[in-house]
């Protein structure tokens, strides 16, 4: 993909750039370069940027890792958030009350296939 140029605001605040993504379940890598007088002065990258739906899961038992078998996603394209960190939705899910299995890996595979 080609680089998109934009002018940084002088206020020191955040920067927003809208980019078009292609349909399909994939992870994206976002790279940012700071250029001054045609020279790169800073650069960074963010791996595993997802674009898609957000589902909120709440409940007991299987939603909290109380399932009998830990599962692993086939696609590795769905992540879960524990309030501080994102991680691939393999069991056990972070931030839950137990260390067993959940329905999240199977949900990942079903939603990715759909």
Report on this structure:
The protein is mostly beta strands. Helices cover 9% and strands 23% of the residues. It starts with 27 loop residues before the first strand and ends with a helix.
Residue runs with pLDDT of under 50 for 5 or more positions: none
How far apart, in Å, are the first and last alpha carbons? 26 Å
Mean of the pLDDT scores?
81
Percent range for helical residues?
under 10%
Characterize the biggest β-sheet: 2 strands, antiparallel
Q: What structural class is derived from the secondary structure elements? A: mainly beta
Kindly report the spatial arrangement of strands forming the biggest sheet: 1-2
Q: Write down the overall geometry.
A: elongated
Number of strands: 4
Provide a count of the helices.
Answer: 1
* Run of helices and strands: EEEEH
């Amino acid at each position: 993909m080609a680089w998109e140029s934009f002018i940084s605001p002088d206020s020191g605040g955040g920067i927003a750039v809208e980019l078009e993504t292609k349909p399909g379940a994939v992870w994206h890598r976002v790279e940012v370069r700071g250029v001054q007088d045609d020279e790169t002065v800073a650069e960074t990258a963010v791996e595993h940027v997802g674009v898609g739906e957000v589902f909120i899961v709440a409940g007991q038992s299987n939603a909290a890792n109380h399932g009998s078998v830990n599962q692993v996603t086939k696609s590795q394209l769905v992540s879960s958030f524990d309030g501080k960190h994102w991680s691939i939705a393999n069991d056990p899910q972070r931030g839950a009350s137990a260390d067993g299995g959940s329905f999240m890996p199977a949900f990942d595979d079903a939603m990715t296939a759909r």
